[in-house]
């Protein structure tokens, strides 16, 4: 498939109260968010005409903005409706949904008390994040040299654009080295997450996953934990040291983009996409498509 730049596509983007032709959805170069990272966003998926856990995403968008000290001038219900309207306007029933809220260009300085809060919503067709054959084999991950920050230094539980720069750097490095992604540690040296997904491990039929008091508590993560518990599978949420990976048999990632994707290796550690991971991947796929 030929690469199509994201700024040169057909369609409509909702911006600040109106639908704008895709190529005309622009913002000023002195926008505060571009210079100081004052932006929050969500990544959502519509399956068969329904955005999975839409309200949970809209609530998190509002919460993330509040953590960055600004208020989105739309209610959760209004954001929900706008996301659905944007999908309908573009004639899509299976797509990726990206709401983004950010501070404008009224004031370009560290202070942003006079800046307008903007909201935009874009949607586009986006199939599986990874090739199905790659998912079946399991992803190859390397260790990132960058660590997730101490929650006393940044609003780490917000889905804030600025917090993703080290993720971009980590994923770029991984792809240059032939890996699909990178696994990051937190500032203390415990396993944290991949560059855009939460991570889970399996040992003796029990699932282990890192705490999320200082990283994003993914909505897909929450869903998979609910699925596992409903199946009677024990889920242990705890700090995990990197050397513990030698004792785990399975590993998988979760996220709106990656859905549930098995991992075959992290650095020198090897895993086999097993029955538990594959069952959760299958169950999640059927759940979001309302096939259960």
Q: Write down the Rg.
A: 19 Å
Distance between the amino and carboxyl termini: 32 Å
- Order of SSEs: EEHEEEHHEEHEHEEEEHEEEEH
Look at the structure and give the mean pLDDT.
96
Low-pLDDT stretches: none
- Report the major sheet: 9 strands, mixed
**Based on helices, strands and strand pairing, what is the structural class?**
alpha+beta
**Outline type:** globular
Taken as a percent bin, the fraction of beta residues is 25-35%
Q: How many beta-strand segments? A: 16
Helix content: 25-40%
Q: What is the count of DSSP helices, taking H or I runs of 4+ residues?
A: 7
Tags for this model:
single chain; 292 residues; alpha+beta; nine-stranded mixed sheet; 16 strands; globular; amino-acid biosynthesis
């Amino acid at each position: 498939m030929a690469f199509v730049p994201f700024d040169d596509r057909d369609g409509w983007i909702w911006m600040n109260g109106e639908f704008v032709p895709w190529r005309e959805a622009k913002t000023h170069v002195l926008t505060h968010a571009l210079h100081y990272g004052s932006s929050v966003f969500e990544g959502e998926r519509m399956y068969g005409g329904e955005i999975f856990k839409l309200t949970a995403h809209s609530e998190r968008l509002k919460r993330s903005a509040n953590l960055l000290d600004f208020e989105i001038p739309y209610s959760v219900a209004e954001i929900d409706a706008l996301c659905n309207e944007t999908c309908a306007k573009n004639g899509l029933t299976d797509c990726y949904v990206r709401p983004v809220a950010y501070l404008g260009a009224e004031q370009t300085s560290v202070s942003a008390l006079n800046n307008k809060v903007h909201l935009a919503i874009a949607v586009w067709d986006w199939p599986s994040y990874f090739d199905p054959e790659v998912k079946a084999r399991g992803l190859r991950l390397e260790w990132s040299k960058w660590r997730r920050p101490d929650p006393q230094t940044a609003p780490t539980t917000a889905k804030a654009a600025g917090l993703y720069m080290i993720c971009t750097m980590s994923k770029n490095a991984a792809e240059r080295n032939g890996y699909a992604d990178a696994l990051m540690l937190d500032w203390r040296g415990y396993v944290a997450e991949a560059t855009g997904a939460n991570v889970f491990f399996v040992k003796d039929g029990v699932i282990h996953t890192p705490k999320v008091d200082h990283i994003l508590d993914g909505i897909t993560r929450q869903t998979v934990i609910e699925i596992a518990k409903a199946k009677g599978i024990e889920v242990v949420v705890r700090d995990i040291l990197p050397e513990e990976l030698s004792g785990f048999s399975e590993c998988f990632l979760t996220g709106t983009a990656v859905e549930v994707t098995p991992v075959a290796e992290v650095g020198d550690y090897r895993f086999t996409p097993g029955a538990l991971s594959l069952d959760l991947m299958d169950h999640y796929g059927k759940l979001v498509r309302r096939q259960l």
